[in-house]
Amino acid sequence: MRIPVAGGELTVRVWGDGPRTVLALHGITANHLAWRAVADRIPPGIRVVAPDLRGRGDSTAPGPYGMAAHAADGIAVLDALGVDTAVVAGHSMGGFVALVLADLFPARVSRLVLVDGGPPLPMPPGDTDDERIEAVIGPAATRLAMRFASVEAHRDFWRRHPALGDWTPDIESYVDYDLTGTPPELASKVSADAVRADSVDTFAGTALRGAWERLRHDAVLLRAEYGMLGAKPALYPDPEVLADRLPVRTVDGTNHYTILLGGAGATAVAAHL
């Protein structure tokens, strides 16, 4: 469905039906189909609502971006669906958005499920914003400037990603949905401006760090064992430093991608939801 927000609309996918709602927020260069494998494992009675965040997928809302803007969009989605309170889940940057949403709109959140994202990360290495973005998301940012001759060429690019492992229909639909244009000039739907603005906001903005310091909701962090390239270090290498703020559960054998897109990771996330 299409839901109006400030400046435009968000494309929103809804799986299931029932009295309980999960608002599921994706990562910085992702789209709503990142949640498909999880949604397929949710039992009856729970509705999973996953928007394309502004600057991603088929959402038309332009900037300004940033965690507070995405949080306000999340509330607009809940309002449009008549949802008073929801479990808010976020993967990667979606976890940052979830924290800020809970901080700004505490009465709308019953619980937080943070999936390899949420707690602020250390300032990445680099002297400029572009160098820091490259240090954190690397190939994911590089892809935004690439052009692909065909859908299959784009799939081949993703098949070579060291973190994806087994190729599944869920992964294929996720990467196919990200494409726009016509061959041989297919490109990602993700706005490079959105990625840059959101990255800078997580490094230098005050909304995320303030939300983390004021965290007062029931929350859990589901941590991947491995990082964005399928190897150690993990995105959160030392869970002990976070344990005084919220429970941390490591999902063994998963990396930053497969904790959501892989079967074992999606099953674990669904169980916590």
TrEMBL record:
GO cellular component: membrane
Taxonomic superkingdom: Bacteria
GO MF entries: hydrolase activity
Keyword field contains Nucleotide-binding: no
UniProt domain AB hydrolase-1: residue ranges: 21-136
Alphabetized UniProt keyword annotations: Hydrolase
Family annotation (SUPFAM superfamilies): alpha/beta-Hydrolases
Name of the featured protein: AB hydrolase-1 domain-containing protein
Species of the source: Actinocatenispora rupis
Species lineage: Bacteria, Bacillati, Actinomycetota, Actinomycetes, Micromonosporales
